[in-house]
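hi support,

uploading two proteins for the ticket. first:
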Amino acid sequence: MNEHLQKLIVEGTLYGLVFFSIITWILIIAKGVQHFRLGRQNRQFTKKFWGASNLDAAASLAKEIGPKARLASSGFSALYVVDGENHDLEHSWDRQELLERHLRQQIQKEYESLEAGLAILASIGSTSPFVGLFGTVFGIIHALSALSKAASPSIDIVAGPIGEALIATGVGIAVAVPAVLAYNFYLRRLKLASADLDNYATDFVNLAQKSGFRITKPINKPQQTRTAANESNTIIGAAA
């Protein structure tokens, strides 16, 4: 392998690590904005929901945005019954089972949205040090090749290539550390958000039980509902 190709490999490794770093910080910022916005939406909806006089009154909140609002909207859709109608398979379930099924499916959708991007952070955090080490190996090979071909070997000949090799290792670690820290932080936030939705779903089922698992007020859904996944993708796309 010639020296020019070895140098290109080291430089390519450094550029690749810089690219990984850019992706990492885009995801860190995007996920931070996502969690901040969804947390604010949940707090606003929770205050309005528990301030409603009953489930029929709370059904008017279905037009609100946020994970809990979408979860409530899914639950209200399962509870809404028009006498003499809804004889299809969708409404042939036991009312409680139908409600729990709707809530469980919506929680899964919200979980998948909040989980988006975490696999990339985990991958970058686990592979960046090895990518840097890959560049280090070829940097050392480049230095040894230059040393073997030199008429009078000296430290000046190997200083440059070895310096580049060590930089590759340092950059690899520098890219991995924020990716790993961000992954652990947002994984923790994901678990807390998921537990919060589970608790809210349990409270919703208990409230629905008191009303016989049905409401009579139609759900006023917005014409165009943005899901959590769409919100997340919009944030990440804008950041990119």
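and the second one:
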Amino acid sequence: MKSKLFFRKQAFAGTSLQQQYSPGKFLFTSLLLMLVCLCIPQNASAASKPTKITGMKCGVTTQNSINISWTPQNGVSGYQVYRASSYDGAYKKIKTVAAGNHAFCNMKLQSGREYYYRVRAYKGSAVGKFSKILTARTRCSAYVATVRVNSNVRKHAGTNHSAIATLPSGTKVTVSCTTITKSGTPWSRISFYINGKKKQGYVRSDLLSAGKPQQRTGIVTASALNLRSSASARSKLITTLPRGTKVTILNQTTGADRQKWYHVSAKRNGRTVNGYVSARYVRVS
């Protein structure tokens, strides 16, 4: 009788273990654990990577500075600001901004030049996607120029960008600033009218005739500014203008160094002298 009871207990115990540790349940549990382990790191990584920066804006600008801002993000370590002199790049990092800020003032820029910005957020070693390109320009006085030959106006500086209009020779346009292509070719941002509607675009600078500036004057900011016979540091030196000299800007052009130069008139030792000076040392008033 005891042996029968013992056999029943053993049989019952065996059945219980088989129910608890069946191969099917074990396999299901193992697969579930594997899925959980795979999902957790992926979700954590996705959550930690910053999102794409939005809300890029250009704020107050001066002749030598540009203020930009963007929509802030929570939980990031900071922001990386990239800038290019050409719309097509190359973009280089110029500033890392702390997480508590979402704006940047870019100083010591050239007057009347266009610059291009992209910003991305970072958190530790993880970086988010770049913002859309923000186009901004320093202040200068616009001037009127004439199209020398039939010219395509492009959406951005460079023949690789789509043409938005073709202007015939003799068309009057207003030049608001200058820029360059990725290869360094000077272009001008212009505004013009077609069928009574104002449009804006870019045309190669050498396709425009020398325009007449709109009554601009300036002050020499360098301690001594060389007045030269042409827009080149190697051209003949006419005279030297001391700091504070008032000049009348007759025209502007792109010099041999691919930078902006002014053709100016100034009083020196009781006589009027004309020549070319580097625009970076003249504060336009």
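thanks. also noticed: Residues 143-207 form a domain with the SH3 type barrels. fold (CATH 2.30.30.40).
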